[in-house]
Specification:
The protein is an alpha+beta fold and 231 residues long. The protein is built from four helices and nine strands, in the order H-H-E-E-E-E-E-H-E-H-E-E-E. The strands form two sheets. It has a five-stranded antiparallel β-sheet, covered by helices on one side. The chain has a four-stranded antiparallel β-sheet with strand order 3-2-1-9, with no helix packed on it. A hairpin with a 2-residue loop joins strand 2 and strand 3. Helix 3 runs parallel beside helix 4. The termini are far apart. InterPro entries: FAM3, ILEI/PANDER_dom, ILEI_FAM3C. Belongs to the FAM3 family.
């Protein structure tokens, strides 16, 4: 049967629209799209492994941070075997791989305005001298961000002054921090309120994950950058 003029035009138009839709779907993706190569065979092209892989954000966060925020992840040490990690803006500041971890408190100081790393230090809180920690914390400048991750024992050598200095940085858990507790904390010099970035896991025989140590803690988030005082 031959198609009349108007009917033939409608059929051609429908075919053109359908072909255009398939071509656009193939070019711009989507689970239901067909590749140009398979348009005429009707077979579906499976997504590649890279397309199926979840998108990765800075420091492994599940979502990107807003503008003017710093992405971070802290991981405390596991027992006295696996060292802690401090990641900021997708850069590892402290880790066993960098060979800059140690028993006790692992601390990274960061410029709160620029996000620039200022210094990393470790302080042995089992057999070390707490005076080194005090000399490190006392002269901190306003706006300095302080990242802390424990490893093994972070509390035995802490005294009243050192605990008070951490409280002034925004900590609420340090006053009760005890032998072999796991602790991760982000504070700042001059903070007006208590820091929302802090976790503590108590060393308890009834709940310890490892023999003599609680489980490792992991914390991540986005820290607002401090406005510059200049200009």
């Amino acid at each position: 049967m031959r198609l009349t003029g108007p009917l033939r035009g409608v059929v051609v138009l429908l075919l053109l629209v359908g072909f255009t839709w398939l071509l656009v779907s193939a070019l711009f993706g989507g689970e239901s799209s067909l590749s140009v190569r398979n348009i005429f065979t009707g077979t579906r092209e499976e997504p590649t492994q890279s397309e199926m892989r979840p998108r990765r954000y800075k420091c492994g966060l599940s979502a990107p941070c807003p503008p003017k925020h710093l992405a971070f992840r802290l991981v405390s040490g596991a027992a006295n075997v696996i060292g802690p990690k401090i990641c900021l803006e997708d850069k590892m500041l402290v880790s066993s791989v960098k060979n800059n971890v140690g028993r006790g408190l692992n601390i990274a100081l960061v410029n709160g305005v620029t996000g620039e790393l200022l210094e990393t230090r470790t302080f042995d809180m089992w057999a070390g001298d707490v005076s080194h920690l005090l000399k490190f914390l006392r002269p901190l400048h306003e706006g300095t961000l302080v990242f802390v991750a424990s490893f093994d024992d972070a509390a035995t050598k802490l005294n009243d002054e050192s605990r008070r200095l951490f409280e002034e940085l925004g900590s609420t858990a340090v006053k009760e921090l005890a032998f072999r507790d796991s602790w991760v904390f982000v504070g700042a010099k001059g903070i007006e309120n208590k820091s929302p970035f802090e976790q503590r896991m108590k060393n308890s025989k009834s709940s310890n994950k490892y023999e003599g140590w609680p489980e490792s803690l992991e914390m991540d988030g986005c820290i607002p950058m401090r406005p510059s005082l200049q200009g």
